[in-house]
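Re: the multi-chain job from yesterday

Posting the exact lines I submitted so nobody has to dig through the queue logs.
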Amino acid sequence: NAGVMQNPRHLVRRRGQEARLRCSPMKGHSHVYWYRQLPEEGLKFMVYLQKENIIDESGMPKERFSAEFPKEGPSILRIQQVVRGDSAAYFCASSRDRGPHYNEQFFGPGTRLTVL
Amino acid sequence: KQEVTQIPAALSVPEGENLVLNCSFTDSAIYNLQWFRQDPGKGLTSLLLIQSSQREQTSGRLNASLDKSSGRSTLYIAASQPGDSATYLCASLARTGGGNKLTFGTGTQLKVEL
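And the result, structure tokens for all chains:
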């Protein structure tokens, strides 16, 4: 059973470009979470999605950031018109609906975004 | 709003020493508490998860305890080794807003020296 997969692992963008980060949850998991780790800071929650629904986006910046988790395919975190302050590691986690330890989140390896 | 604090921020010990990392949280209405390890430039490795109904969990040389009433968790590492050098993060899972989310502490950076 493959773990949570994220790609790309490293992404370099110039200011003003768009960044698209992808996350494939573990098999059987229908809940996806995105977290951001800024340099020298802790991980902060961004958004929680279930298939085709955003459940909690209280941690998302108000502008330029969006997330989706379509019926088919991976979850996408999209950052428009990137700025240097967006440089960070972005981690995705997934969890399942039910069963033992259903609320345990499993993390992917992260995408490290560098904005030049 | 849940706040998670970890003490100390950094710790350097000689190999073989037993050590304790501390984690405190402000809101005791949690589902679980999880300890992670993060190596420089790498992702998160889950070490131990303690459900809210449990008091402790053990895995090898690691033991984590949870005291919800006092808002504290500790991670005990026995017979530390240089390979244990990493940043250790604790995170509490609570229901806020529309769903569950993890609130992370800022970590304890551990260095185990030969």
